[in-house]
Amino acid sequence: MAKATKCFFGHSQVEYLGHVITEQGVATDPFKIQAIVDWLIPQNLKQLRGFLGLTSYYRRYVKGYDSISKPLTLLLKKDTEGWNEEATNTFNQLKALMTSAPVLALPNFTKAFVVETDASLTSIGAILL
Fold first, then answer.
1. 77-115 pLDDT, tens per residue?
2. Given CA atoms 59, 62, 64, 67 in this order, what sign does their dihedral have?
């Protein structure tokens, strides 16, 4: 049986896994983009992990994300020198890439495509299609 608090009917947009799905298409959740814009230079490993976690969620939409983010991921290893100018440049580059369009490519609405969801959101995908 479906849980009523998790069902949406008649909505013009649905937030789903960091994206907003509307009849116009799919877009990155504006709250996630604002979080990236507002993110200050990390002062410790926890903050750096948080930033990399947020940006890596959208990594598939940024060509070469792994090589771009490498200077920051290297800082997660033990016995690194710490934050440097290269890290600052990488941090700013990732922020710019993540907050400029297009982070996502929209599907071609003249052709058939599938929105995959987990079992609790299957009805949402069917309603929007």
1. 988 888 999 999 999 999 998 887 655 556 677 888 776
2. negative
